[in-house]
């Protein structure tokens, strides 16, 4: 296997840049450029050369020995000054060494997966952590990266394997008198595992919303202050405001961090019957997008909800243009009255929505969990029939075990590897 090298820190000028080598020739390459290495995980100050005696820079050299490294291979990190010229020269010098080449996007992490340092769920957690923009996204990604989902999947698999072993023991000794009926223990193991998987699968939707962000649609009739409210929440002039009704034709989106959650605010066209074809299209789009949003905030002068808007218990109706803030439920984007109450409502709803999310965060996870549940349901049906079909029950439990293997990346993930690692940057 080639030794790979890449800039592991951010691109551009910086005080310090970290260049990472990984592979069988990592140590030899580092010695050729920087001389003797220190003990594993001990940083030493060295002059970094081009391999032919010309000094390129001075910096810290740290060796992480295999298999106790991020990739499971020998890794050497060169912490040099963050000049574009220095980084370019050091990378070029590394690539002139035998069997050393530039890494592809995500190749360090892919090697960590292949060498058993990370499971597939941890790789996905790392990708989410790199992309995290808010505190909620960071916390969720860190839970997945810690291996919590993989650990749970391993325990679920152990319980299923135990159930399989009990059934297969009964099958193997079918012609002999078995002193203990294993069916109750098998049923307990299967039903307990099934309940845990159903709970995890049920939380995937909200976990995905934490990753992608929630949508809050501001809706109402024309000229009730929707764009003014959006601007007040965004803290800038994101939308054009005017006393002329029907100014907003298309949907304006503003992304913000609200209590650690990524939230996209949607300013929509005023909802009314109109003969203007372009405005009519805007109204249709506004209704469709509002009904697809996670939360709807209806601005109304009289408390009425416009026709076509499908309200849920999480939605809120706000009395518009209450500049004095005296009316209960009133809000004003012009003066700021009632905005704090509105934000508190959004925070409470988002926290409640995410309270049921677990550590399964992707559609792939959900599909694997649901596949296992279907197999366990079939196994329970065979158990009800009796010992004559225990072989079929055992096979269904094996199918559930394979679904758990797919969840953590032991089998059946080749088709999604390229897609996942393509989102990684060089050096990760």
What does this structure look like?
This protein is an alpha/beta fold and 428 residues long. It has 14 helices and eleven strands. Strands 3-4-5-2-1-6 form a six-stranded mixed β-sheet. The protein has a five-stranded mixed β-sheet with strand order 8-9-7-10-11, with helices on both faces. A hairpin with a 6-residue loop joins strand 1 and strand 2. The two termini are 18 Å apart.
How is the topology of this model organized?
Elements: E1 3-7, E2 14-22, H1 26-34, E3 44-49, E4 55-64, E5 75-82, H2 84-95, E6 100-102, H3 107-114, H4 120-131, H5 135-145, H6 148-172, H7 183-202, H8 204-212, E7 214-220, H9 226-234, E8 252-258, E9 261-267, H10 277-292, E10 295-300, E11 316-319, H11 339-353, H12 363-385, H13 390-408, H14 414-421
Parallel strand pairs: 1-6, 7-9, 7-10, 10-11
Antiparallel strand pairs: 1-2, 2-5, 3-4, 4-5, 8-9
């Amino acid at each position: 296997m080639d030794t790979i090298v890449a800039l592991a820190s951010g691109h551009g000028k910086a005080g310090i840049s970290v260049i990472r080598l990984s592979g069988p020739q990592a140590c030899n390459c580092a010695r050729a450029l920087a001389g003797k290495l220190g003990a594993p995980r001990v940083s030493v100050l060295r002059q970094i050369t081009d391999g032919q005696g010309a000094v390129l820079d001075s910096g810290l050299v740290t060796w992480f020995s295999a298999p106790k490294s991020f990739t499971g291979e020998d890794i050497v990190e060169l912490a040099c000054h963050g000049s574009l010229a220095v980084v370019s020269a050091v990378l070029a010098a590394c690539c002139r060494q035998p069997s050393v080449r530039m890494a592809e996007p995500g190749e360090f992490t892919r090697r960590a997966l292949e060498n058993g340092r990370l499971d597939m769920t941890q790789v996905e957690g790392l990708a989410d952590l790199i992309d995290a923009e808010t505190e909620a996204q960071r916390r969720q990604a860190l839970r997945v990266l810690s291996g919590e989902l993989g650990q749970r999947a391993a325990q679920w698999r152990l319980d299923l394997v135990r159930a399989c072993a009990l059934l297969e023991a009964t099958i193997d000794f079918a012609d002999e008198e078995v002193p203990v009926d294993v069916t109750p223990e098998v049923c307990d193991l299967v039903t307990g595992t099934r309940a845990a998987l159903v709970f995890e699968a049920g939380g995937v939707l909200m976990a995905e919303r934490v990753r992608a962000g929630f949508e809050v649609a501001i809706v109402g009739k024309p000229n009730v202050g929707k764009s003014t409210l959006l601007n007040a929440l965004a803290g800038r002039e994101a939308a054009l405001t005017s006393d002329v009704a029907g100014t907003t034709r298309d949907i304006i989106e503003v992304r913000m961090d609200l209590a650690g959650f990524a939230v996209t605010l949607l300013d929509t066209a005023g909802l009314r019957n109109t003969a203007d074809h372009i405005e009519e299209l805007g109204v249709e789009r506004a209704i469709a997008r509002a009904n697809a949003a996670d939360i709807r905030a209806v601005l109304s002068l009289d408390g009425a909800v416009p026709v076509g808007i499908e309200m849920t218990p999480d939605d809120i109706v706000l009395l518009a243009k209450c500049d004095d803030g005296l009316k209960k439920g009133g809000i004003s984007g012009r003066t700021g009255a009632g905005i704090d109450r509105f934000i508190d409502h959004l925070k409470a709803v988002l926290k409640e929505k995410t309270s049921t999310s677990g550590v399964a965060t992707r559609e792939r996870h959900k599909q694997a969990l649901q596949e296992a549940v279907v197999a366990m349901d079939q196994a329970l049906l065979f158990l009800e029939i009796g010992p004559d079909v225990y072989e079929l029950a055992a096979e269904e439990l094996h199918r559930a075990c394979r679904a758990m293997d797919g969840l953590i990346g032991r089998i059946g993930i080749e088709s999604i590897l390229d897609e996942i690692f393509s989102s990684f940057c060089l050096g990760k």
